[in-house]
Amino acid sequence: MRALACIFIFTLALVSSGFASAQPLRIVTEPWGPYVYHDGTTPTGIDYEIANEVFNRLGVQVEWQFLPWKRCLMMIEEGQADAVLDIFRTPARERQLVYANEPLSSVDFVLFEAAERPQPPARLKNLDGLRVGVAPGFLYGPAFDATRATKEPAPNLEANFGKLLLGRVDVVIGDRRQGRFTLQQMGLGGRIREIQGTLHSDVLYLALRREGELPALAERFAIALQAFKREPGYSDLLKRYAR
Question: How far, in Å, CA of 118 to CA of 84, rounded?
């Protein structure tokens, strides 16, 4: 992954579209591999490729912006973006956004520890007194929110893993698939390890602002995504990212 502050805009070819707009659909997302990230200068990832395929089928022109997560949420709130990719569903967000009802991916949040400083199992039961590396704006579930752990934010998972190695946090919370991907990218598989057990599971969606034709587009996206998931191409895509 590249730094979260980078911005990359990629426009899909326009074919006949039911989304009647002179401007492309503006989608914001945060780069976090393997769901959506930069491979050199090219956007890629499981959910990026899925969304890309679906929008191509719908004939919708898209402009992608890769930004820090808090900035993504701010742009949606202020009307500077039309949609956000890979967002969790909450009642508060549904008052502002309409979700494409077919999820893109599922996530499982787990803890990671430094191999040279393993945490006693007793401390991991409730996380009391532990310094936990988190990402700003992410939702880790009500059980984690209720813990008396000290939440230590860092810009991204790479930064949190760096803090973990330096002993500035005791553990890091992150999605299992993202964590494994990031450790491989950073070459830290022998120094940081995943702690067994899932703290929270959730699913990721595409969500659009409740404005104009966007709610209808959300419905069309969900239907097209359901159809794509029944095809061999979808299974082939998942196999390419399996790890």
Answer: 37
In this structure, what token pair is assigned to residue 95? 């008052």
Residue 225 in any domain: the answer is: yes
Half-sphere exposure (Cβ direction) of 89: Cα atoms closer than 13 Å: 17
CA 189 from centre of chain: 22
Residue with tokens 């709130």: 77
pLDDT of 10 > 80? The answer is no
Contact status, residue 81 vs residue 26, Cβ threshold 8 Å: yes
- Structural domain includes residue 207: yes
Do 142 and 35 lie in one domain? The reply is no
- Average pLDDT on 119-135 reads 91
**Whether residue 84 is found in the same domain as residue 117:** no
Mind giving me the DSSP string for 55-100? Answer: HHHHT--EEEEE--HHHHHHHHHTTS-SEEEEE---HHHHTTEEE-
Per-residue confidence (pLDDT) for residue 126, from 0 to 100: 86
Domain extent, residue 114, equals 107-201
CA 196, CA 212: separation in Å to the nearest integer? Answer: 46
Residue 39: count other Cβ atoms within 10 Å of its Cβ: 11
Residue 132: CB partners within 8 Å, gap ≥ 6?
111, 147, 149, 150, 151, 152, 169, 170, 171, 172, 173
Structure tokens of 10? 């990629």
pTM to 2 decimal places: 0.86
Per-residue confidence (pLDDT) for residue 121, from 0 to 100: 87
